[in-house]
Design goal:
Layout: E1 5-9, E2 15-18, E3 22-26, E4 44-52, E5 57-63, E6 67-74, E7 76-81, E8 86-90, E9 93-98, E10 103-109, E11 116-123, E12 133-138, E13 149-153, E14 161-162, E15 168-174, E16 179-183, E17 189-197, E18 199-202, E19 205-208, E20 212-216, E21 220-225, E22 230-238
Parallel strand pairs: 13-14
Antiparallel strand pairs: 1-20, 2-3, 3-4, 4-11, 5-10, 6-9, 6-11, 7-8, 7-10, 9-12, 13-15, 15-22, 16-21, 17-20, 17-22, 18-19, 18-21
Amino acid sequence: MESPIYIYHPANSRGIANHGWLLSKHTFSFAHYYDPERIHFGALRVLNDDYVAEGMGFGTHPHDNMEIISIPLEGDLEHQDSMGNKTVIRHGDIQVMSAGTGIKHSEYNKNSNRPVKFLQIWVIPNKRDVTPRYDQITLNLAERHNKLQTIIAPDAQVGSMWIHQNAWFSMGNFEKGHQEYYSIHQPGNGVYAFIISGKFKINNQEVSERDGLGMMQVETLQLESLEMNSEILLIEVPMNI
């Protein structure tokens, strides 16, 4: 196998959009932030770290031919879409939309006394013009204590969601000193690690809160938590799209 390739994105290197009610930090090129070296990581197109002020949000807007995943970290986010769904997602929930032939939706902070923090992730699908789809799930957070919990897979596994792509998302929350291993599901896939909190060593690469680390030509990851309550998101995606 060829030598591993590591792409390090420090937290402070991300694009920033500050609209007052919205503070969004972009790992990859998005809206007015453009970096030709950071368009995507394989099928991973968008990784936005969003802060939405009390009672504010995104008005109705369209999407198509994209798999959109929302992961709330704090607060309650109200979703409404053109398929008739009106739901609230909270910490521990995962929301998936297959935009397909076209969908319109809005997202608002349902709370008047605290902000919402969530990750908005877009994955390029392996099928175009599918029928739009919405789904969400509430996960058992205890199942990611000192281990990785699969939250998204190509085919819905017990306790996970699915998207139109050979992609796997995993989350884990670890005590200091805990070590964990992750094996690539599909040969040729890469893994993008996003550190939600704390600090990790991944294959001897140190990464801290809100840092990103893209890894290609690897078969196994060795993770070691370097701080208490270190939380990580792993996104495994095809590199050829």
